[in-house]
């Protein structure tokens, strides 16, 4: 097992990641030479260290620290499946995983990078293989999937030991089938993505169904086209 990631230990100790209970993105304080933040979530911030560029260091906020152990155990169970990053080690408040280059699907939509059907199928396959290992793949949304050489890869496996289906991926796959063809290769502005997200969150409020959401989204899209 490679341990050269340990070169980053000292630098990582200079960062603190602060989160809260309201599911907002975490905030970072501190810094160290060679360390750059490559992604932010609601539980953690992810860094890369210049002298050891193959690794990504996922540093959890204190309030999400329990998820570190959960995510580590999930990575162990996913070992060998090529649709997920690889686990390399851990520190007191971080996991060391393979750095995975490529834009997230959200960045693809914002930048007009085409998302091929193959990448969507890869995510389905990733989920199937995770289920085969007794896991419950969930929390799969636009920021947790990246496009890598035309293929899909799934990040952020911390919730796979939880019960229930948040249906996020099913809804994205449905939207891909229903709307994506007209947008492939076009930059989708942030206001539109936000508006779609707001409509989508209303799904939780039970009284709206998918077809009603689709009608709303179509009205929004008409303004864009
Ligand atoms: N292995 C990785 N390689 C490259 N970027 C990553 C990697 N893991 C996470 N990221 C980036 O960091 C962001 C936040 O990481 P994530 O694991 O989703 O944190 P959270 O659990 O807080 O949602 C991701 O959306 C992605 O942009
Ligand atoms: Mg995430």
Describe the protein.
There is one protein chain. This protein is α+β, with helices and mostly antiparallel strands and 225 residues long. The chain has two domains: 4-98, Phosphorylase Kinase, domain 1 (2-Layer Sandwich), CATH 3.30.200; 105-224, no CATH class. The protein has seven helices and nine strands, in the order αβββββαββααββααα. Helix 6 (190-201) runs antiparallel to helix 7 (210-224). The radius of gyration is 18 Å and the shape is globular. The protein starts with 8 loop residues before the first helix and ends with a helix. Bound molecules: adenosine-5'-diphosphate (ADP) and magnesium ion. The site of adenosine-5'-diphosphate has 21 residues, from strand 3, strand 4, strand 5 and strand 7. Residues 38-44, 46, 56, 58, 85, 97-100, 104, 143-144, 155-156, 158 line the site of adenosine-5'-diphosphate.
Low-confidence stretches: none
Q: N- to C-terminal separation? A: 52 Å
What kind of sheet is the major sheet?
Answer: 5 strands, antiparallel
- Give the averaged pLDDT, no decimals: 93
Domain unit count: 2
Q: Radius of gyration, Cα only, in angstroms?
A: 18 Å
Biggest sheet: strand arrangement: 3-4-5-7-6
Shape: globular
Number of DSSP E strands: 9
Provide the succession of SSEs: HEEEEEHEEHHEEHHH
**Residue share in helix:** 25-40%
Structural class: alpha+beta
Number of helices: 7
The portion of residues forming beta strands comes to 15-25%
The unique ligands bound to this protein are: adenosine-5'-diphosphate, magnesium ion
């Amino acid at each position: 097992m490679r341990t050269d990631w340990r070169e980053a230990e000292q630098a990582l100790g200079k960062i603190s990641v602060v989160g809260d209970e309201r599911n907002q993105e975490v905030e970072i304080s501190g810094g160290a030479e060679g360390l750059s933040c490559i992604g932010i979530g609601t539980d953690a911030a992810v860094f890369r260290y210049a002298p050891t560029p193959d690794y990504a260091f996922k540093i959890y906020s204190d309030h999400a620290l329990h998820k570190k152990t959960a995510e580590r155990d999930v990575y162990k169970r996913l070992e060998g499946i090529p649709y997920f990053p690889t686990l390399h080690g851990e520190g007191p408040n971080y996991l060391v995983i393979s750095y995975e280059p490529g834009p997230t699907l959200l960045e693809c939509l914002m930048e007009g990078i085409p998302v091929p059907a193959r990448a969507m199928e890869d995510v389905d396959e990733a989920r199937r293989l995770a289920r085969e290992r007794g896991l419950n793949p969930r929390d799969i949304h636009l920021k947790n999937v990246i496009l890598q050489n035309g293929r899909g890869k799934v990040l952020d496996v911390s919730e796979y030991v939880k019960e229930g289906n948040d249906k996020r991926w099913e809804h994205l796959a449905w939207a891909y089938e229903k709307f994506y063809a007209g947008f492939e290769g076009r930059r989708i502005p942030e206001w539109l993505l936000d508006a779609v997200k707001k409509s989508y969150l209303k799904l939780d409020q039970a009284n709206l169904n998918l077809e009603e959401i689709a009608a709303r989204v179509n009205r929004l899209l008409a303004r864009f086209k």
